[in-house]
Each structure stands twice: as C-alpha cells, then as structure tokens.
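Reviewers asked in the last cycle whether our approach scales beyond single polypeptides. To address this, we selected a multi-component target totalling 747 residues and predicted its structure end to end. The input consisted of the following lines:
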Amino acid sequence: MRMKGAQIFVECLLRENVEVIFGIPGGVVLSIYDQLYDAPIKHVLMRHEQAAAHAADGYARASGKVGVCLATSGPGATNLVTGIVTAHMDSVPLVVFTGNVPTHLIGNDAFQEADIVGITRPCTKHNYLVRRTEDLPRIIKEAFYIASTGRPGPVLVDMPKDLLLSDAEFSYPETVSLRGYRPVVEADPHQIEAAARALMEAQRPVVYAGGGIITSGASAELLEVAELAEIPVTTTLMGIGGFPTVHRLSLGMLGMHGTWYANTAISHADLLFAIGVRFDDRVTGKLEEFAADAKKIHVEIDPSEINKNVPVDLPILGDAKLVLQQLKPHLVKMRAEMPPEWHRERRAWLDQIEQWKREHPLCYDDDDEVIKPQRLIEEIARVTQGDAIISVDVGQHQMWAAQFYRFKRPRTWLSSSGLGAMGFGFPAAIGAQMARPDQLVVAIVGDGGFQMTMQELATVAEHRLPIKVVIVNNAYLGMVRQWQQIFFNGRYSAVDLSLSPDFARLAEAFGIVGYRVTRPAALADTIKEAFSIPGPVVLDVHVAPEENVYPMVPPGASIKEMIEGQYKSPKTFQLT
Amino acid sequence: MNQTISLLVENKSGVLARIAGLFSARGYNIESLSVAKTDDPTLSHITMVVNLEPRVVAHLLKLLDKMIDVISVANLSDGKTVERELVLLKVRVDPSQRMEILKEAELFRARVIDVGSDSYIFEATGDTEKIEAFIELFRKYEIEEVARTGAVAMARGLTSPHRVTATGGSS
Ligand SMILES: Cc1ncc(C[n+]2csc(CCOP(=O)(O)OP(=O)(O)O)c2C)c(N)n1
Ligand SMILES: [Mg+2]
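The resulting structure, written as structure tokens, was:
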C-alpha cells in the first residue's frame, strides 16, 4: 500500500508495539504530529526535549522495553543530547527520532538545521540519516533491533521533512539482515565449566554484579548461583535491584560510596566473579589495587569491555542470564560432591564477612532537631516496603538512596550512573510511571538537580501521574560541597542553594499537592500521608545541610583507603 | 610502532566518520588511511596505519568490530601480509638534469606520468619504506608536491581475515 512517510512512520511504530512516545512538536515533524492526532499511540508532551529523552529512558529501564522519543530539528534535536548520552553510558535501549530540514537544504545552514547525526555519532549505538521514504520501514525495524539486542543502547533516526511528506510503498520487513552485527553470542561450554570449578574451589570468592544482570533479566539466576556456590554478592550502582539488599549474601554496593564490607571483601578476595560490569573507575578506584589478589572471571556480552581496564584470567563472552543458567547444573553437581571441609572453609569466609558487616555497618547520627537524609531514605523504604520504583537524580541523595533503601527487585532503581546527569531523576520517573501505571514511583531528587528539569511538573499535572517527588533539600549542591569540604579546605564556591523556591508552593502553582517537612518528628507521618494521596505529590524535605556521604574512597585512591564517617551515637543500617 | 589495521565495511555515508571519530575522540592520529570499494560495490576495504601501543590497538579493534557498519576487522601487523602504497611526486627539473633525474627514478622503477616544460611527475609503488626512500632521494632536487595513497595491505595466502557470510560478522 502507498502511504506518506509520516504515516509509514506511525505504522512502523505500531508494528513495533510502541504504546507511548515522549516528545515535543516543531516545524519539520508537523506531518508526524498530524498522524499522531488520531493514532492509537499515546504521545506525552514533555516541556523540554532533554526530559523527553530521560522519560523514554526511564520507561525503558522500568519496563525492559525500548523507550521512544521524538523531537523536531535543530534545537529540538540538540536538546535531546544529554538524554542520549545518558542512555548510551548506561546501555539503555532507546529509539530517538528527529525531524530534519528538507533534504535539499541539508548542509545549507537552513533554519533550525543541526547535524544531529554528526553530533550523536559518538554517543549512539548506531544512527541513521534517512535518504528515501521507502527506506523508512527497514531503518526503523533495524533501529529497534539494534537498540534492544546485544548490549542495548540508543539509536537515532533522523528524518528530513520532505521524506515524511512524500509517498512510498509500505511493507514492514519481517526480519533484519545486518552482516556487520552479531549480537547473540553463545558462551563456550568449556569456559563455563572452568568458571564453575573456580567458583567452587575459591576460598574467598566475591560476585561483582552490574547492570548486565538487570538488562538480561538475570537476577533470579544470580540469586540461585550465589546461594548454590555460597558466594557473597556486591552490585554496582547500575546493578542495584539485581540482588536483594537484605540477604545474608548481600554486600550492598561497592566503589567510591560503596559499603566498607563490600570494598574490603573485594580487597581480600581470591576470586572475583565479575558479571555484566565494566570495571568503571568509580568502582575500582586505583586500578592496580582493585581485587589485586583475586583471579578474575569476567562474564560480558560486549567483547570490547573484556580486558579494557583490568586484565582478566577467564573471560566469558555471553549473555549474563544464559551464562548463569549454564553454570547452575555444574554448581549443583559440584556442590553435591564437595567434602565437608569445603563447607567449613566457605563458612569461615562468610563468617568473616558477617563480622565486617557488624563492625563497619552503614550508619549515621540520627537527630531530633534536624532531619538526617539517611533517615529520610529509611522512612521511604519503610513506607514503601521496598516495593516502589525509585528514580534518583545525581548527588549525595543518590548515594544515600543507593545505600539506605531496601531493594527487592530489578528495574526498581533508575539512576543516571555512567554519565551522572543532574536533571535525570524526575523525568525518568515520568517514563517509569507511564510504563508501570500501577506501581508506586518515587523520584528522590536533590534541590539542585530538580531545578534542572522541574518544568516537567506541568507534564505530571497534565497526566495526573501519581509520582511522589521527594526533594532531599540540603540547600546545597551537596555532593560538590562535600568535595569542597574534604579536598578544598571547606571553601564553598558556587554551591549555595539557600535561595531556592519554596518547592511545595511551586508544586501548588502547577496544581500538585505540596508538602514541606522540616522536623524529624513529622517525617514519618507526612511521608505516609503524602504517599497515600492518589495523585502527584511534591515533598520538600529540609535535611541537615552539611551531612556527608560515607564511606568514601577519595578519587584515584585504592578502595582499601576508605574515609569512614565519625559518629557519636551511630544508628546503623539494619541488614535484616 | 606502526600498526596496520584492515577493515571491511559497508560502503555507505557516515561509516568513515564513525571510524575516524573513534580515533579523534581519544586524541589519536591516523598515520595513513586508504579507502575504496571492493569487487563487491556494497563493501569498502579500509587500510589504516596507526602509531599506537599494541594493547590500545587491540581494544580499538574490538570497538571497530562493534560498529554496525563494520563487517570485519583485522590487525595486519604480524608480518604475514603484503603492503603497498603509491606516491605521485612532482619535481622541478632543470633541462641539464633531465637524464640524471630519470636514471635515479629508474632505480625505484618509478614511471614518468607527466612531463612539463620544467617538471616531471613520477609514480612509484612499494612498501612504505621504499616510498620514503624514493622521496628521500629526490630531496636533493626541488620537490614541488608529494601525494601518497597511504598503505593498502592484505594477508598473504588464501587465509583471509575478512570472511563475509550471509548472517554476517567477522570471525
Ligand atoms: C548536569 C550536571 N551538572 C553538574 C554536575 C556536577 N554535580 C554532581 S553532583 C552535584 C550537586 C547536586 O546537587 P543536588 O541536586 O542538590 O544534590 P545533593 O548532592 O545536594 O544531594 C553537581 C553540581 C552533574 N553531575 N550534572
Ligand atoms: Mg542539594
């Protein structure tokens, strides 16, 4: 059947089962918006394209499906870039559509022209400039395929205006044929067996699990394998939710603001089972001293991550879930054959870890006068029972949420981890709520980062999205202030946010219920009340302004060199 | 140390920019680059010479291989390869030197492809060392212009690192 390009575009999205797209219209995509007027696809009008990309990203992280966003040429397209880089760094499947000026004007400095394909070449998994209307179905099919397979990532499709207006024959391809792309890799069975043996024979093994666990849907398998081989598990920031926070084998998060016991276990390990991770510098600290005594197994779907930062002894190229499934029968068999000494040795290692957990727990000094941010996170965990989707921004509050919330399930933790883009948390929560309308979505944001995308209160109000926005208001760009305190002699330069708006009243200006909490005594009840409201809520929680995140590995230092907090009467994070 | 990278890629717009971007983003220079389509016009063969640590090249090869439009990659620095480049060299000639210059060029089997009233253009092929020696030799005359193709390289024998299959991918 012959159709206009814009209609082909919508047909293709329907074939890909796209239910919702996030975007903002403009000149060159008017034909698409005309099609969307009565298409069975929900379009969410965002108030900034950056937020559209982050919302698509939050949608993808919360659901595992591909997130889709749409913007006009020039400024619309360039506004997407932070969101695209965020998704690229965290391997999130996005298909990003942009309109462009008509083909004959490309390269002409035409009105609202930007070379978005050139701009996003280094920060997309792949991108396309469509040259002919009849290519649209193939390209869109490929875009969804590339975005969602292998190591996922964002794919951008740039569509000149004239192609959307002209006719072509429409037929949607059934299959994709890309001779340069082989996303599925089957792990070598010999390596699997060698890994199983190494896991069982090690005396002090540690699992270091990352975002790959979430992406491949491997959290159940990870739990099984950890329990079978009796191995403690630490996760990266991206891996949060991939292993329950509260579990006898859980070490919590590792790295710069990881738990003392996770970093210490890594440093004492004789075997590191790294799965779906990339040995990021915020995790490893000084590379030469990271798990220096451990033999390293690295399970990874992306060959370019293997041996990138750390030489590994046993690389296993494969999908995390499949590899764990393949490991399981070997572990079952080997475990049954293990002599009693094995159980004794493993018990000794786990006892050592228990002792570290007891002696160096996450903790803070609670206070009756001022709300401690850690206490705030603990209250949110209590009220939500660990069942909420937590979308965070970037800064101290992000680290406290990572440390003090009790995660039970994958895809309940959304964080711009690789890029660390302030402004992510709130729009990502919008995407997550669209993907999971029945689930409680809590955006935990800083007073600084919220101000980068708070215009999206309008989007939330328009759609009555029942998101609970919790502003951890310390009146500072807190994480920067912490670094200035520790590394720059307390010279606080350009971090004071004490003249921020009254966020509760601001929310009300958007027609959203706002609360302002300043007293610890009122905290629990206010959270409970606010979270029981069926619509959107903004909770402006004033917390201790100069609280720091600990433990902390100074940048460039070994993860053995953690700065620990000094507490008078520490309240400890209960791991039961 | 110079390393020779050989790539088989889709013959499409944007592919070269993507490949070059991988190097420029890291501040790496590409010493030479040669690109043209193969017997199959949908494919281009790229030969790149870079001066980087072997460890870095190994990582870059993986990143190149990951690109959707890159079909296969190979490091041709192990010696079991043949490598050629072509140079065009324009030299100013004084009538009294014509014979001498032609003799010298002959040593390198260079051919004259243009004769001007006071210039020659020579064409010479060979491996990079030979091309450099050829240019070196002509420094005593007045070189007007040099244009080199950069190396093109291929593995010896029938074992090609670039095997293209219907489902694609390099091995
Ligand atoms: C877009 C962007 N700009 C700057 C930074 C650098 N940065 C990291 S954390 C931070 C402070 C965040 O302050 P706030 O949102 O109030 O969170 P807090 O640390 O106080 O919890 C800044 C400026 C960043 N990560 N992202
Ligand atoms: Mg703050």
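The radius of gyration of chain B is 19 Å. We regard this as preliminary and will revisit it once experimental data from Aim 1 are available.
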